[in-house]
Amino acid sequence: MAFRFNTRRICTGKLWSPPTSLNGSRTSKVTPGWQRCRSVASTASAEKVLFPGALNSEFTDTLEFIRPANQKAIPTFRVLNQYGEVLDKEAGVDTEDGEALELYQNMVRLSIFDLLMFEAQRQGRLSFYMVSAGEEGIAIGSASALSPTDVVFCQYRESGVYMQRGFTLDQFMNQLFANSKDAGLGRNMPVHYGSKELNIHTISSTLATQLPHAAGAAYALKLQNQQQPEVPPRVAVCFFGEGAASEGDFHAALNIAATRQVPAIFICRNNGYAISTPTSDQYRGDGIASRAAGYGIDTLRVDGNDIFAVRRATKEARRLALEDGGRPILIEMMAYRVGHHSTSDDSFAYRQKVEVEDWKRRDNPITRLRKWLEGRGLWSEAQEKDLRSSSRKEVLKAFEKAEKEKLPPIKHAFSGVYEHLTQEQRMHVVELKDILKRYPKEYDVDQHEGGASSLDQLLDEKR
Ligand SMILES: Cc1ncc(C[n+]2csc(CCOP(=O)(O)OP(=O)(O)O)c2C)c(N)n1
Ligand SMILES: [Mg+2]
């Protein structure tokens, strides 16, 4: 006999028992399976070896590569078809008529808001804007299925999440104009909203940075959910584009979320483009959902033009994310980016106008829900007209109000970085004061609240 297997079974589901505390009683902490088995273990007749890096992999004598091209693509979950008809009549929709009407009205409001802000930028009244045309159902539908206490991280094309959570038109406008009423004190580019009250972290355009932030927040929530079982548990929700999923941060976030089993919902808006880069140049695999499976994360692909499907998927994701102490979930929501990437982009330089027109005609979250509402006798052309005209008026009113506001005090270019002004900052303030004084025609300080005087206040502040 030349050789013997080591038959010691170091770790199996059967032999393992929950850890006990120092006084011998059972603790409630259960170590998950993926943490238990760390060593090679087998019997001579075993069908599989528990390699520490690939648990439960069976031996095979067939040499066959897994070839993604031969596998069926992940299906796309839908509740309604393109004609607004419910596919599974028994399951129906899980939304009351009143709520469906509200969702519809919010989607229309958002699209009108987008249209008017895009035009305002073209008139030179705003410096920058990004629309979410075609993706209204993803933002509004998913936000409507979350708890207001859940912590949200957005990319930049999710104004609907803010709107659905109660961000007011005034708040949107104050941020867009970076006026003195902007909660961010005018320090961000337009569209970089944030709201502490609504539990939405401030947007950062540096792609994908929100993903590891969300994984970290979800880990904190996992601990909080454990430590405060009397408080309703919360999840972290992270929105990102399929282009952002090409960043290293995406992979780091998914991996840490999976290994730590944190209650996070990653919502990918796959709209077909990352500015001018089409998905065909971005990846070769089956979208973004397939990547989640690679990290051991439960995943689903959803028709983003179907707000009922978006809602149902998000609700179920939330339930799963909080199960057994927490786990991450990824949902890939499919849509088409109907608008240009931003006001700095002309998408007809890289895609055909007819492609966009085709999508607009073929499918859209707003028209799909409208068809469903009309089919139930809940909506009419007259109501549509009223909604559109009143939304337009509301948006323009808030726009004009915010446009008249002064800009924030100049001192906020320096404040809030350190607790107290540093010696170096002090020198910068003095220099700025000098420049403003020497070139009064170049810098209209009166646009700012308090003119240049806020800089003196800053210099006078006691340490
Ligand atoms: C780190 C980083 N790299 C590049 C950019 C430039 N950039 C801004 S948006 C964008 C495309 C992102 O596409 P996607 O994530 O699909 O979102 P979408 O715009 O389609 O909603 C790029 C490349 C950036 N903002 N940050
Ligand atoms: Mg995209």
What does this structure look like?
The protein has about 475 residues and is an alpha/beta fold. It folds into 3 domains: about 60 residues, no CATH class; about 325 residues, 3-Layer(aba) Sandwich (Rossmann fold); about 50 residues, no CATH class. Helix content is about 40%, strand content about 5%. It is built from 15 helices and 8 strands. Strand 7, helix 10 and strand 8 form a beta-alpha-beta unit. The longest helix is centred in the first third of the chain and has 26 residues. It is globular, with a radius of gyration of 27 Å. The termini are far apart. The N terminus is likely disordered.
Instruction: Please identify, by name, the CATH architecture of the largest domain.
Output: 3-Layer(aba) Sandwich
Radius of gyration: 27 Å
Global geometry: globular
Instruction: Spell out the helices and strands N to C.
Output: HEHHEHHHEHEEEHHEHEHHHHH
Mean pLDDT: 91
The poorly predicted ranges are 1-28
* Distinct small molecules bound, one entry per kind: thiamine diphosphate, magnesium ion
Order of adjacent strands in the largest pleated sheet: 1-7-8-4-3-2
Strand content: 5-15%
Structural class, from helix and strand content?
Answer: alpha/beta
Which oligomeric form is depicted? single chain
Counting DSSP H or I runs of 4 or more residues, the number of helices is: 15
Domain count: 3
Q: What is the CATH T-level topology of the largest domain?
A: Rossmann fold
* Total beta-strand segments: 8
CATH class of the largest domain: Alpha Beta
- The helical percent reads 25-40%
Question: Kindly, what is the distance between the CA atoms of the first and last residues, rounded to a whole number of angstroms?
Answer: 82 Å
CATH-assigned homologous superfamily of the largest domain = Thiamin diphosphate (ThDP)-binding fold, Pyr/PP domains
Largest sheet descriptor: 6 strands, parallel
